[in-house]
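Ops channel
N.P.: pipeline sanity check, posting one input/output pair.
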C-alpha cells in the first residue's frame, strides 16, 4: 500500500484497471466486451502522448492520413505490450514510448526514405548554394536559391521535403532520435531562418547594454561562459546590475510573439523558470543556445 502512494494519477488509473482486467481474464467465462472496453479506455489515456510523439518525429514528412495510419500501428503495439506493463515500476509514457518510436521510425524507413537521382542531384545543387551563401554571411531566401540554382521554388521545396524525409529515416538505436552527419537543405534553410529570427528578436527587444552583456556572457572566444564578476569588472557595473540586465533581456525574448511564431507553438527560448531561484540557470542555458546566433554578422 505504501508503494502505491507515490504513483502518478496515470499510474493509479492503469494499476486499478489492469488489476480488474486481469481478474476478468481468469474467470471461467471472461467478459470479453468489458475487457475490450478497459483496453480502449487505457489507450485513450495515452493516445495524445503517442500522437504528439509521432508529430515530433514525423510531422513534417507525413500527411494527416499517413499520421492516422501510424497511430493505428501505435495502438496495435500498445495492446500487444499492455500485459507486460507494470504501473508500480514506471509511468505509462515511460514504458510505451520506446515501442511508439519503433513504429514511427519503421514507417519512415519503409515509406519515406527513397530519393530519386533527380532529387539527389537537386539536393546537391541546393546544398552548394546554401553553403556559398553561409560562407559569405549572406541571408538567403527561397527566391535567391531559385535564381542561383535555376530550379523553381516548387522544385526546391519538393527537394527539401524529400531530403528531410531521407534524413529522418536514420534512427539512433538507443534513443530513436533522428540524426544525420550531413545537414539537408531543409536543415540549413531552417537554421538560417531561426538564426535571423532570434537576431531580429534580440535587436527588437533588447537595449545596447543588454546585447553587450549577453555577448560577454556567452564568451565565444573562451571555453565557457564569462563569470558575472568578470563581466562586472570589465563594464564597471555591479554583479547585481549585470544579472538584472541579462535576466531582463531573456524575459523579453521569452515574451516575443514573433519568436514564438518562428519556432511554432513551442518556443525553445522560453524557459520554465522560477522567478528567483533558478534565474542564473536560465541565463546559462540561454547563453549556450544563443552563442552562434549572437555572432552572426547581421545580428
Amino acid at each position: 500500500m505504501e508503494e502505491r502512494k507515490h504513483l502518478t494519477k496515470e499510474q493509479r488509473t492503469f494499476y486499478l484497471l489492469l488489476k480488474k482486467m486481469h481478474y476478468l481474464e481468469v474467470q471461467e467465462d471472461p467478459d470479453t466486451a468489458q475487457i475490450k472496453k478497459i483496453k480502449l479506455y487505457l489507450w485513450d489515456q495515452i493516445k495524445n502522448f503517442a500522437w504528439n510523439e509521432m508529430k515530433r518525429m514525423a510531422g513534417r514528412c507525413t500527411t494527416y492520413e499517413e499520421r492516422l495510419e501510424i497511430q493505428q500501428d501505435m495502438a496495435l503495439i500498445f495492446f500487444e505490450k499492455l500485459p507486460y506493463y507494470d504501473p508500480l515500476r514506471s509511468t505509462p509514457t515511460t514504458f510505451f514510448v520506446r515501442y511508439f518510436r519503433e513504429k514511427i521510425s519503421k514507417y519512415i524507413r519503409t515509406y519515406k526514405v527513397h530519393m530519386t537521382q533527380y532529387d539527389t542531384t537537386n539536393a546537391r545543387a541546393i546544398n552548394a548554394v546554401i553553403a556559398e551563401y553561409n560562407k559569405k554571411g549572406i541571408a538567403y531566401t527561397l527566391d535567391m536559391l531559385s535564381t542561383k540554382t535555376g530550379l523553381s521554388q516548387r522544385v526546391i521545396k519538393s527537394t527539401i521535403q524529400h531530403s528531410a524525409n531521407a534524413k529522418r529515416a536514420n534512427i539512433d538505436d538507443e534513443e530513436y532520435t533522428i540524426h544525420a552527419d550531413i545537414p539537408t537543405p531543409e536543415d540549413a534553410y531552417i537554421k538560417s531562418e531561426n538564426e535571423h529570427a532570434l537576431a531580429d528578436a534580440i535587436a527588437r527587444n533588447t537595449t545596447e547594454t543588454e546585447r553587450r552583456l549577453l555577448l560577454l556572457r556567452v564568451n565565444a572566444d573562451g571555453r565557457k561562459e564569462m563569470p558575472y564578476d568578470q563581466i562586472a569588472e570589465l563594464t564597471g557595473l555591479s554583479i547585481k546590475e549585470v544579472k538584472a540586465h541579462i535576466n531582463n533581456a531573456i524575459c523579453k525574448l521569452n515574451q516575443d510573439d514573433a519568436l514564438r511564431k518562428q519556432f511554432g507553438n513551442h518556443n525553445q527560448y522560453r524557459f520554465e523558470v522560477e522567478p528567483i531561484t533558478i534565474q542564473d540557470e536560465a541565463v546559462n542555458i540561454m547563453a549556450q543556445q544563443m552563442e552562434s546566433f549572437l555572432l552572426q554578422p547581421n545580428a
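N.P.: looks fine end to end. Confidence is low (pLDDT under 50) at residues 168-182, 265-283.
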